Description:
The protein is α+β, with helices and mostly antiparallel strands. It contains 4 helices and 13 strands. The longest helix has 18 residues, at 9-26. Residues 161-165 have low confidence and may be disordered.
Amino acid sequence: MFATAGASAAHTLIVSHLVRELGNQLKTKDCFVYPTDLRLYVRENGLYTYPDAIVGCGRPKFVDAMNDTLTNPTVLIEVLSPSTEVYDRGKKFEMYRELASPQEYLLVAQDHYSVETYWRRPDGSWLYSSYASPDDTVLFRSLECAVSMNEVYARVQFDNPEGGSVH
């Protein structure tokens, strides 16, 4: 169990940028974009969790009439925090892979330019890609859209080891 209330300014900005950019690009498609507060349920292993962002396409499916716990995400996004990074990369991703619906999983650093994507291939294997330059563009294969790293990290201040901050 991880305490997740509260997040850094960088974490929150990154989530809001991704939700906005994806929402704008998907507004004419049969997709929905949800920020942090929508719960996800992985029936196959009993996991209840709150990804930083969820994208789904088609009709959303919920556990019950409360419509607060989704079961059919297409893309799951986690912004890495020091307290959850190992879990997000390992056990959580393992449990997410038990769902049939996710087509992509993103891990986004909050302290430097880094987005890692895992895309589910038709044979069920996962293809890894990484983006580490401000000039890169993150491709969302399952959504047929892309977001520039400059948009993901707009106005995010990274700590500079020599003092001050850099963007």
